[in-house]
Amino acid sequence: MSTKRAKLEQREKRIVVAARSVFLKHGFNKAKMSQIADTAELAEGTLYLYYKNKNAIVKAVVADHWQHITGEADRALSASENSFEQLQALAEYHLTMMVKHWRVIELGYVLYYSHSDDAGENSGVDFKRTYAALFDRLIERGQDKGTFAKDLSLPFLRDLFYGTLEYAARTLILHNKPEDIEVNIVQLMNVLRPHLSGETTAQADTDTAVLKRLERAVRKLERLR
Amino acid sequence: MSTKRAKLEQREKRIVVAARSVFLKHGFNKAKMSQIADTAELAEGTLYLYYKNKNAIVKAVVADHWQHITGEADRALSASENSFEQLQALAEYHLTMMVKHWRVIELGYVLYYSHSDDAGENSGVDFKRTYAALFDRLIERGQDKGTFAKDLSLPFLRDLFYGTLEYAARTLILHNKPEDIEVNIVQLMNVLRPHLSGETTAQADTDTAVLKRLERAVRKLERLR
DNA sequence: TTTTCATAATGAGTTTAACTCATATATACA
DNA sequence: TGTATATATGAGTTAAACTCATTATGAAAA
């Protein structure tokens, strides 16, 4: 029994591996089912015994990638206990990964934007969920430890974090400057640091406090003359 | 002669209008050339006299949208002279537009991720260029006026700005909460403000140093009476 | 007004590639 | 070894983008 199931899973895996190489080489639209079949050394019809259609195959390829990536990112985090350092490590890992595996990320978007009604169960972005959850957990831990402010909006921060990094990845790829990854990370952290530690409002408070205190003192001095 | 050219342009326009409605209703993949032809009241073959292929038609639809959008955004900016207010207005306009016209934005991505070699001249993201340039100009003006710090990285800021807003738009659409647009804008501005005006950690340090020094001086004066 | 010519429109026909299904082969089990 | 069940095959079907030989249109010449 275990042999049978193992055999099936092995063949599924083989299709996914073949599909990835073909998709990466040609992109979704130009990748032909016949090529995938050839690469996997199977007949074209056999593919349809394992996956409903072409979309289902990319979905498997992309899901596989995000799952792998989640494991790696999790390990990258455990290198430090400090929440800021963890955040920086996640940002660094994420941006590096995006630049390196951009073609796979793209496949995910093709899937997402194809609006295939067959999608049914999951719409094709679910893999990202567990991955994105790493960020949420990190922030919440930081809040529990008192490193991060309590009044942060998690959804907004998540959008800021991943949105910025994705656009940064696109820019880096467009200008072919993978060496600028570090620069981007430093800047992102500079933007986030004061916000996360709640300095902004606190800072504004001290500013007005300084001003009021100064005004009082000056008025007193003027009266004394 | 002007009549002839006008007639051709009018027909191009008619195709684009028909195509937009069909694409918006069904999405790129499920939109059929035959439907577009029907809607435009033309034969299918006629479409190909005006546009090379399906991709060329979406490209026209998307280009049309970004051009329109650029005009509107520019007008939204001219309401204020203050750089921070202009930035906020742009963010607000952009996010509102993204949420409202998400389907058109999506069409742009389908085009972008299709990797059609026929793309030739422009890769399909060029429309965005002039639009994104509004942001660059705004920042540079702010720097000239001394409102914004000089040592900002424009590419990074641009990625942060548009990346965050796009992800925020996705989140708003996903949870169907268009009323949260304002909340997102306020938060983005809170993050950007200190960074743009150059209030780095060093700044915060000097602030508290000033406060302490001032407190000492004032106490001394008060003791003197 | 009629003829001519160039330009534009048409839709039946071609092509391509995803997907199906009747048939063939392998595998497990008695 | 024989039979039943599961798995694999690839020729055949289908759908939709795109082509092209034919037809319509409309402006200028006769």
Q: How would you characterize the overall build of this protein?
A:
- The structure is a homodimer of 225-residue chains.
- Helix content of chain A is 80%, strand content 0%.
- The first copy, chain A, has 10 helices and no strands.
- Chain A folds into 2 domains: 1-51, Homeodomain-like (Arc Repressor Mutant, subunit A), CATH 1.10.10; 55-224, Tetracycline Repressor, domain 2, CATH 1.10.357.10.
- In chain A, helix 1 (2-30) packs across helix 4, helix 2 (33-39) packs across helix 3 and helix 5 crosses helix 8.
- Chain A has helices at residues 2-30, 33-39, 44-50, 54-77, 83-100, 102-114, 126-144, 154-174, 181-196, 199-224.
- With 225 residues, chain A is mainly alpha-helical.
- The interface between A and B is large, with 49 and 50 residues.
- Chain A binds a DNA duplex (30 and 30 nucleotides) through helix 3.
Secondary structure blueprint with pairings:
Two copies of one chain form a homodimer.
Chain A: H1 2-30, H2 33-39, H3 44-50, H4 54-77, H5 83-100, H6 102-114, H7 126-144, H8 154-174, H9 181-196, H10 199-224
Chain A binds a DNA duplex (30 and 30 nucleotides) through residues 4, 32-34, 42-46, 48-49, 53-54.
